[in-house]
Design goal:
205 residues; mainly beta; seven-stranded mixed β-sheet; 27 strands; 32% strand; globular
Length: 205
């Protein structure tokens, strides 16, 4: 990783982006126009932060992540390798938000404790979806566009709606799996999975 203020040749930061000097940006990563990456953020290798996106203080992103235009990734979110965040997605960090305290005084940073969204390897969050912290999105899961996630999402789950509910399973290719009577098959890779107790695992595990 390279400090944001270094001249590392493999890190691209648009002139209009606002990247904190102590943010660490992995080799091959790109921060595009009007994006903001806050203090202490750590981005892995080959990440893309799109136009107008916000990466909060201390947010951690793995390798090969894509955060699309105008997405808001509030601290202390943690993204695994290969996570996709669609345009205008919001990852919140305040379960009970208020601008003021009960006595009417303006809330400060010391008046609340931020909680984060955790997104595991390979998961995708569709455009304009909202994940309400604290929730965990499982590995290779897909959250459909416009969904509002208020509870944890299992690995490989496909969730839609408000509030989000599971309607199926997806494989690593992101395509819905085909039900073969107790077994689930990815129509792209041919990989088979088994379902038990509301969880999906590879057939040979």
């Amino acid at each position: 990783m390279s400090p944001a203020n270094s001249d590392h040749p493999s890190v691209r930061v648009a002139a209009s982006a606002d990247v904190a000097a102590d943010a660490l940006i992995g080799d091959g990563s790109s921060i595009w126009h009007l994006a903001q990456v806050r203090e202490g953020a750590r981005l892995g290798r080959n990440c893309v932060v799109g136009r107008g996106a916000y990466i909060g203080t201390g947010v951690v992103m793995g390798d090969n992540c894509k955060v699309q235009n105008y997405a808001l990734v509030y601290e202390p979110a943690a993204l695994g390798d290969g996570v996709f965040i669609g345009p205008a997605v919001v990852l919140t960090n305040d379960t009970y938000p208020r601008a003021v305290n009960p006595d009417g005084s303006l809330k400060s940073a010391h008046d609340w404790e931020p909680v984060g969204v955790t997104i595991k390897e390979g998961a995708s969050i569709g455009a304009r979806a909202t994940c309400v912290a604290p929730v965990t999105i499982g590995a290779w899961a897909t959250v459909a566009a416009g969904a509002v996630v208020v509870k944890d999402v299992p690995d490989h789950a496909l969730v839609v709606g408000v509030p989000a509910r599971r309607i199926g399973w997806v494989g690593r290719a992101g395509v819905p799996l085909v039900d073969e009577g107790g077994r689930w098959r990815c129509p792209v890779t041919g990989t088979h999975y088994v379902e038990a107790d509301g969880r999906l695992t590879l057939e040979d595990q």
